[in-house]
Structures are given as C-alpha cells and as structure tokens.
Amino acid sequence: MIEINNVSLKYSDKSVLEHCTFTCNQGIYGLLGKNGSGKTTLFKAVLGLLKMDEGDILVDGYNPQLNRVEVLTRIGATIENPKFYAHLNAYDNLSLHLDYMGVNSDDHELIINEVLVKVGLIEEKNNKVSEFSLGMKQRLAIARSIAHSPKVLILDEPLNGLDPIGIRDMRTLFKNLSLSGVTIIFSSHILSEVIEVSDHILLISNHKITVDENIQVLIEKQGVNLENFLIEKMEETTNE
Fold first, then answer.
1. What global pTM score does this model have?
2. What is the CATH number of the domain that holds 176?
3. 139 in a domain, yes or no?
4. How many CB atoms lie within 10 A of CB 218?
C-alpha cells in the first residue's frame, strides 16, 4: 500500500506538487499527466529520493525518508531512463541487483531465469546490455524491478520503446503481478493502454491530483468519451 497525504514539493521555489492526497491499495494504478506535470517527481518522493516540503508518504507503513532500507526492499522501481552496466550481460546485471537487495547468491540463478522468462529475455541473458535495443533495456528494467519480489511496483513510463508485442506482454505481466497481490502504480503517455490495464486512474494537472477514480466508474460516467475527458483534464489550466 502507498499512502500519500497532503504532499507538496517545490524546485527552486517553483511548485511541482501541491497538497496531493491519494491511497494505492492492491491493484493497478495508472498515473496520467502532461510532460512536466510532476509524475516522476511524485515517484521519486515515494522512493525517498526527494524531500517533501509538506505532507507524509507511507509505503507499507514505512516513511521513505526515515525508513529508507525498509521501503526500498518493499518497492521495485524503474524511474526515467533505466541505467545498467552496459559491459555486463543481462544475467550479471540482475545478479548485482539481487546482491544489493540482500538476496542469497544461491538463489540468484533460479530467480533471474524466472524473471527473464516473464519479460521475454531468457534467450538474451548472456548478451551484453550494450547490444540491447531500447525495448530490450525496458524489459530488463522491469525484470530488475520485480526480481526481489517487491510488494509495490513503481514504473515510470515502462512501455517506452516497446513494440506492440512487448506492450501486450507487459500488460499480461502487470495483470498477473496484480493478481498475486502486488500493488502497481505506473505512468504512460499511451492513454489507451492506461485505460486497458488499470483498475484505477490518477491524474495530475496544475500540480494537484485532479482525477482519483476507479476505472469502471470512469467508464460508466464517460463512456466512449473517456479518452477525451482525460485529455481535457490534463490540459486544464488555472489563472494562478
């Protein structure tokens, strides 16, 4: 579970988030917003990478600023452009991550093979990451985020660089992870995919959460106009 309570955050006196409040329980939460709306900033705050000016964040009951280790062991994440050791192969990159997360080395091979199968990279496990396409790196980033069996997944634009087959595969993976009890919050500019895979929609505009609604409720309210409704909400401006 992620609990966001009255969170505000500024960069150099420029407001990015203002009094944001929402809760993510089990399920898949799609986070929408224009470029620069604060999606990545919010994710970084949840991970404890940015300090808030106001408010509280709890991840599975832990404050990411005060309980960094407890939070990071419970979260799997991909933020912005995922980085890897390009001179190492996929297997070794994941093994280093598992070492960092404190996973017994005797368990690495089984875990790594399992997650690489899930993301469709098992045939590439011995290939250097420097040889990977953007889509393959995105798959590897998702494999890394789930390798230590987190309770919560935070995925910043996880569909970037994926072809239609890759998007379909990740959609299936997210749904299966959710059914196993993982809470997922992800951002994407592919609006149709967010609507397709999400149980709940969150939307940031004007530095605030302006949509926080179950997807079925939104579909019932908006029908075929749902995409236009969400785009209009993203484009809303204030006179401030």
1. 0.91
2. 3.40.50.300
3. no
4. 18
